[in-house]
Amino acid sequence: MHDDASHGAELMMMNALIRANLGIxxxxxxxxxxxxxxxxxIWLEGFRLKNxxxxxxxxxxxxxNV
Length: 66
Hints:
single chain, 66 residues, mainly alpha, elongated
């Protein structure tokens, strides 16, 4: 079970992902819009990290595990 502090930290991270990846203010969103924006931000973050990992493998060699 989450306590208030960890819930607050989790909400802060979710808001940061939405702001950074989508450039919108999460506090202006309705709950369903927030959920959709968070899903999109998570997908975009994963897409970027996968591409970055592939680029680093291409630059420095090594085994590709992505």
